[in-house]
Design a protein that fits this description.
The protein is of the alpha/beta class. The chain contains 13 helices and twelve strands. The strands form four sheets. A five-stranded parallel β-sheet has the order 6-7-8-9-10, covered by helices on one side. A three-stranded antiparallel β-sheet has the order 2-3-4, sandwiched between helices. The chain has a two-stranded antiparallel ribbon with strand order 1-5. Helix 3 packs antiparallel against helix 4. The two termini are 32 Å apart.
């Protein structure tokens, strides 16, 4: 039986659904918006989070309201097939982000109506999750923001976004901290977002950080040559939406970054977990700037499938302009709720999910 088979047949009854918006302004001129999907039925509520990055698409969905014909009696798999037939809104990679909001809510609701938890349904024991804090260092990069975080959170480790502005001195300073597990080159474009392939930058970073994972290089003849000695450390994120994407990578990876919302459906995500186990490919998890319940859900998935990896699933509070004291340190207690697909939130830190 596959991992998906363990949940696909769960009945789910949906009577209605509701949408509500969340927002955060992490820096001037940028407001992150997400939408909480609430599926309601049989006195239970299933929650998911639509992490579409297009703010206008998020606002348009809220303005339209709950107009999709979702009410009915299904299995989880039949509900997913219903979504195949519906127009949810965004296209391209954003379509998967929205789809995940509805699929994760349906998984949560089906489990709650069945009186089961995800861990119980899968026969897996959640374990404490090691996480990294993902940081871009801006137009004038230095290690100062990382040192500031280390003063509050001395156990912190990082996933850093490399950029053309990283001078030799900056690279030496960052590497000297000895706290980095992943460097993301962002060379595989996400829409119009990314960094141009830079063979010289890749070579300098790979040499200065000899033990870190090198994520999403933009491969050209020049960058491929620069990274040839480090190929075993290359990992992928942005291209990965399905098993076929993993199979299509330019060479077999030792590990990959699995972002649940990038897969869109529970089936595609769980099939990827199974495939990587079969092929001996390691996994670490990643987030999409979730503001609500979605963050806890990806933390729970990390606890079930890859707790000891450099998971980019730090508490949401680290996305705030000035991370506050008191955020949960690594490793995270998995704290699954007794029913459904959620991680229980701390009373003192409800907003962080």
């Amino acid at each position: 039986m596959t991992t998906y088979d363990a949940v696909a047949g769960f009945p789910v009854t949906i009577e209605k659904y509701e949408l509500s918006g969340l927002s955060l302004e992490p820096r001037p001129g940028f407001t992150r918006r997400t939408t909480i999907v609430r599926l309601l039925g049989e006195g239970e509520e299933g929650l998911g989070e639509d992490v579409t990055y297009d703010a206008a698409a998020q606002l348009a969905q809220l303005e339209r309201g709950a107009t999709l014909p979702l009410a009915g009696h299904y299995t989880l798999d039949a509900f997913s097939r219903l979504l195949d037939e519906l127009e949810l809104g965004p296209s391209g990679f954003e379509a998967d982000h929205r789809r995940w909001g509805y699929e994760s809510a349906a998984l949560d609701l089906a489990l709650r109506q069945a009186g089961r938890s995800l861990a119980d349904a899968l026969g897996r024991e959640p374990r404490p999750v090691r996480y990294v804090i993902s940081k871009g260092l801006g137009e004038r990069p230095s290690a100062a923001p990382l040192r500031s975080l280390l003063e509050q959170y001395p156990e912190a480790r990082f996933k850093l976004d490399a950029a053309a502005s990283w001078t030799g001195d900056v690279i030496v300073e960052l590497a000297g901290l000895g706290r980095t597990d992943v460097v993301d080159f962002k060379g595989v474009f996400r829409g119009d977002f990314g960094e141009r392939p830079d063979a010289d930058l890749y070579r300098r970073v790979a040499d200065a950080f000899p033990d870190v994972w090198l994520e999403d290089p933009g491969l050209t003849p020049e960058t491929d040559e620069a990274l040839a000695p480090h190929r075993a450390r290359i990992t992928w994120d942005a291209p990965i939406h399905s098993v076929s994407d993993i199979e299509s990578l330019p060479f077999p990876p030792r590990t990959i970054n699995v972002k649940p919302s990038r897969f869109g459906t529970v089936r595609r995500l769980f099939d990827a977990y199974d495939f990587c186990v079969e092929q001996g490919i390691g996994l670490y998890g990643g987030g999409q700037f979730e503001l609500g319940v979605g963050r806890g859900q990806i933390q729970l998935l990390a606890a079930l499938f890859h707790p000891d990896s450099p998971n980019d699933v730090a508490p949401s509070g680290f996305n705030e302009p000035e991370p506050r004291a008191g955020l949960e340190p690594t490793p995270l207690d998995p704290r699954p709720e007794p029913l459904g697909f959620r991680r229980a939130t701390r009373t003192a830190n409800r907003a962080a999910s």
